[in-house]
Amino acid sequence: MIAIVGGGVCGLSIGWYLARAGRNVTIFERGEAGRGATWAAAGLLAAQTEAEPGEEWLLPLMLESRAMWPAFARELEAASGMGVDLREEGVLAVALDRDEAERLAFLFDYHRSLGLDMEWCDGAEARALEPHLSPKTAAGVLSRRDRQVDNRKVAVALRDAFMAAGGMLCENTEVKEIVVAGRRVSGVRIGAREFPAECVILAAGAWSRGIKGLPEELRPAVRPVKGQMLSLKMSEAAPLIRHVIWGNGAYLVPRRDGTLLIGATVEEQQFDTQMTAGAVHELLRRAREALPGIDELPIAEMWAGLRPTSRDDAPLLGPSAVDGLVIATGHHRNGILLAPVTARAIADYVLTGRMPDSLAPFAPSRFAA
User: Fold this and answer.
1) Considering just the CA atoms, what is the radius of gyration of the chain in Å?
2) Helix H or strand E segment including 19
3) Given 29, 276, 277, 361, which is the most exposed site by the fewest CB atoms within 10 A?
């Protein structure tokens, strides 16, 4: 048996790939599958807009996985029988004053220096794309290649596709320990019961480091980073925006059903997932400055999630120093974006014993020292 610890977007994607290849796969999820960081995300596939100085080494992986998403979405929709709402209007980053415009221009030049296809807009051009933007909008940068997907629909579809392919899903089942004999994994322990496994894939997100059984130096260097978000309800027939809007310290993500997501904070708060008044106020303030028309929209939902974050904000992907133990965690804010490339690489490794050279920079061993 192949045991996958964690039923988020990456665990489910890997499990689906392996199950449809005919392998005996069981996913153990401490809660409900797809209801952790996957459910709390915004579904952004914004590899270009999110590219930051110092993360040049991560960009090729993000671009590769973004390019995989259209085929991944089609296959997932066919396998599950449900849509995942992959949208391709693009992402519009905006600046509301001169200082923000200067910073946006710096990022625009930086992105263009990397060969990324970005389009500069003055304030009038940005408002022509999205007429409900603030009259103060000074400039914008349009990334037509960036996308979004409904991450919650993806989670449900992956669960259904995995089980339809013959996978076994054990929800509300917390793995307390990865069982290791010598330097070889032999299974997982749940309560007093041990489940033998020839391979264990650790994809438990922010909880990956806390699972017992591994020597301290081999535990994944991953911590939780809290993100608070909320959603408003627009008119489905006449939404305020169609592009994802990025700027003023927040992002606004429109869904096809009229839902408008607003996010997200970045907080070092361990495993705390409480909503706070200050965070909600700040998100709404920043969103309202960019899109004044939200004033009369009803609040639909508020929530917080825990991003699994490594020391360098990049994922840990590949085999560990323990034979049979494979790591797939630490995706930080890019779990949805990187799901296709993660699933393909980890599933191929389990099936063939080979990892692509392009993923060598993301080996878990980079933190061994």
Assistant:
1) 21
2) helix 9-20
3) 277
Class of domain 2-83+151-220+311-367: alpha beta
Please tell me what DSSP assigns to residue 87. Answer: B
Q: Which residues on neighbouring strands pair with residue 119, listed in sequence order? A: 142
Question: What are the CA-CA distances from residue 124 to residues 48, 121, 277 (Å)?
Answer: 23, 8, 34
**pLDDT tens for each residue of 242-256:** 999 998 899 999 999
Average pLDDT of the segment spanning 28-32: 97
Nearest to 101 by CA among 69, 133, 139, 135: 139
**Cα 323 → chain centroid:** 28
Nearest to 138 by CA among 156, 153, 155, 120: 120
The Cα–Cα gap between 267 and 279 comes to: 10
Q: What is the enclosing helix (H) or strand (E) of 196?
A: strand 193-196
Q: Let me know if 24 is exposed, middle or buried by CB neighbors in 10 A (0-12, 13-18, 19+).
A: middle
338-369 pLDDT per residue, tens: 999 999 999 999 999 999 998 999 999 998 75
User: With left for phi above 0 and alpha for psi between -120 and 50, is residue 75 left, alpha or beta?
Assistant: alpha
Binned at pLDDT 50, 70 and 90, residue 218 comes out as confident
Tell the CATH superfamily of the 91-146+223-310 domain: D-Amino Acid Oxidase, subunit A, domain 2 (3.30.9.10)
Dihedral Cα 117, 122, 123, 124, nearest 10 deg: -100
Tell me, what amino acid is at 308?
P
Sorting pLDDT into bands at 50, 70 and 90, what band is 216? confident
- Tokens, residue 348: 């191929």
Token pair of 16 as six digits: 């689906």
Sequence spans of domains, the chain: 2-83+151-220+311-367, 91-146+223-310
Q: What's the pLDDT score for residue 155?
A: 98
